[in-house]
Specification:
124 residues; mainly alpha; 2 domains
């Protein structure tokens, strides 16, 4: 890289560099910023402040499936197991999964705790 130095009062004031070098430096700065964001997310995820949703759940939920059902299946639980662990009946859980009933915040919170997920992943 060749840089042209422009002086003011006998001291370097500006450096003019080829545009390709300028673009390269911008890319390096962007890479460094991206790496910082990834490192911050990794630290937050490791500390339990971030939660990731598996791609299969995202795709199936976007296709219209119940997030409650998807997370129950992801955790390899039957409706009976989840209902018992959450303190509700199996028919009520079934109605929540099919959208026939809306759960209360307390009920959905209990289900979220039983599944080990944040409440907001079970609600729209």
């Amino acid at each position: 890289m060749k840089a042209q130095l422009i002086e003011k009062d006998g001291r370097p004031e500006f450096a003019v560099i080829p545009y390709a070098d300028y673009q390269h430096f911008l890319e390096l700065l962007e890479d460094e910023a991206d790496a910082l964001v990834v490192a911050e997310f990794h630290e937050a995820y490791s500390a339990g402040r971030e939660f990731m949703v598996p791609e299969v759940i995202v795709r199936r939920e976007l296709a219209g499936e119940s997030p409650l059902k998807l997370w129950r299946e992801q955790r390899a639980m039957t409706q009976e197991e989840l209902a018992k662990k959450s303190g509700i009946s199996k028919p009520y859980l079934s109605q929540l999964e099919t959208g026939k009933r809306q759960g209360t915040v307390d009920t959905l919170s209990a289900i979220a705790r039983s599944l080990g997920v944040p409440l907001d992943v079970l609600t729209e």
